[in-house]
Amino acid sequence: MKCPYCHHADTQVIDTRISEEGDSIRRRRRCASCDKRFTTYERIELAMPVIVKKNGSRSEYESSKLRASLMLALRKRPVSAEAVDTAIQRIEEKLLASGEREIVSGHLGELVMRELKRLDKIAYIRFASVYKSFEDVSEFVEAIQEVKKK
């Protein structure tokens, strides 16, 4: 680790502590050249897969977009913010667990639909109607019957 003061490459770790949350490591370091001390933090860096859209374009995964989609489907529905956070966390865990560097948007849409079906059936129908581009009432009826079965 380079010293931030003199840019010397040789620094020594004096103290190491794990954060209270357990998600980072704090290290106190001392520069061998200028003898100044500084703190560094180590954190896990997890890279979410890139989303490949239907037209072939690619975009970075954005949690805020996922949240906005869920909130739109859940608008005026009795679902707690904690339940939405948990659903987002499950979706993100599945994306990370896939180990893929790229994921098609259709797969992400299916994950969202699965979580919405768990959270609220009406929100699921709302999302599915847009996601699957329902064009007539019979498609709504089919989706409602599918939800009723389970």
Automatic annotation (TrEMBL):
Keyword Heme among UniProt keywords: no
Residue ranges annotated for the ATP-cone domain, each copy included: 49-139
InterPro entries per UniProt: ATP-cone_dom (IPR005144), NrdR-like_N (IPR055173), RNR_NrdR-like (IPR003796)
Zinc finger motifs (unnamed), residue ranges: 3-34
Keywords annotated in UniProt: ATP-binding, DNA-binding, Metal-binding, Nucleotide-binding, Repressor, Transcription, Transcription regulation, Zinc, Zinc-finger
Cofactor stoichiometry and binding remark: Binds 1 zinc ion.
Cofactors demanded by this protein: Zn(2+)
NCBIfam families referenced in this protein's UniProt entry, alphabetically: transcriptional regulator NrdR (TIGR00244)
Protein purpose: Negatively regulates transcription of bacterial ribonucleotide reductase nrd genes and operons by binding to NrdR-boxes.
Family assignment from sequence similarity: Belongs to the NrdR family.
Name the record gives this protein: Transcriptional repressor NrdR
